[in-house]
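Worked example 2:
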Amino acid sequence: STFGAEQIVGALAYSQPIHTLCLFKMMRKAGAAMAALGFSALSLQGCGGGSGSTATTVTTTKVATTTTTTTVTTTTLGPLGPQSKQDLVPIKGISYRALPFKTPDIPPGEDMMQKGYEFMYHTGRDDLGMMRAMGASAIRIYAGLGSELYTDHGAFLDRAFDLGLNVIVDFYTSALCPEFDCYATWKNMTVTGLKNQGMMKDGGWHPAIKIIMLMNEPDNLPFTDDQGAQPSCPKDAAEPPQFMPWCRVKAVLSALDGLMAAEEAAGIADGSSAMVGVAWSFASRESIDKVCKPSMPNENMFGFQDIMAGIADPDIASYSFRTSGSTKFYKNRWVNAINSPAPWSFTKLKVNDQYTPYAPTKFFISQLTPADDSPQDLNADLIAIDAEAKKGGEFMGVVVKGFQTERTCETEGHLQGEV
């Protein structure tokens, strides 16, 4: 509806083997939503809108004494060329986890930054170019740090930087975290990313990286213990184990400690431009200091309160920092984030309108999962979100889930995974 037929066909040409129904639904929904914010809908040549090239073939046919010359022009589509830089705020983001497989039996690596996916994100389909042409200012990459430790990520970051896309990169949250002490693992993942995978440039984080997400929904305890299983927080008489706050807070504080130690070892200055945060779930939970509780107006901001309380007093989570400077780090670089499946009106009521206790720390919606296939509702939400982010307060914007389905369509009219 938003993209013309010429653009849709051009996108399809470079999107095989995506199921046609999936792609049309993705283009209709994401394209219409982005257009609602007044984004420029560029001509999507080869999905990225590159300049292309032309070649002329001349065919000569001789009939009696008459010569007819036919000229055929062929356009070669190419990736989108360099684009102007964009401010981080307002965040107009799209999550990117377009894994190229049809069944879950043998899934490929979920880290889309690795070199093996270059044909998808740049040289072939040019997914990054398509997202930039749709009007995105940021992309969120799940598991970009630590999912695998051997391949180059610099090419992805260079491409994003050339396109003016700000990168929000996640650590692989389901990593080893014995007894909820993630220090050693997160330090190793950070050191490897900086020194061996192209995430460090000119003495700091690569300039494309603007936000680093330490964990995704640590309140669900998605870690791995030293037995290779998901750990359980010791039970308390008053709470189910997954709701015990000290386990998740210890995990986050120790992960932050590991990142700080790795940055210090790499010589990254304290004033790094990369912000650091955690993407919390939208669940209703009690914070570690009991300031936030289920059924209270602030019930969804338990994670924000957890970290503020944990930085002020790490003993509350039975943790002691190995490095120094956590309070300064929180003040200068921390960002709060929440994954929301709810309409903006509800998220605004439950989070944005009650955020004053956490100011001046910034926050954003790290994953907005649309509730249905109605682009009109999503349009209205994105327009309102963009307007709020432009007010200059603590709210920074939104990352919409996501660029494309993770799998092909299972059944007619039904999308699996991201939409």
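Residues 1-28, 39-63, 408-419 have pLDDT under 50 and may be disordered. The chain is about 30% helix and 20% strand.
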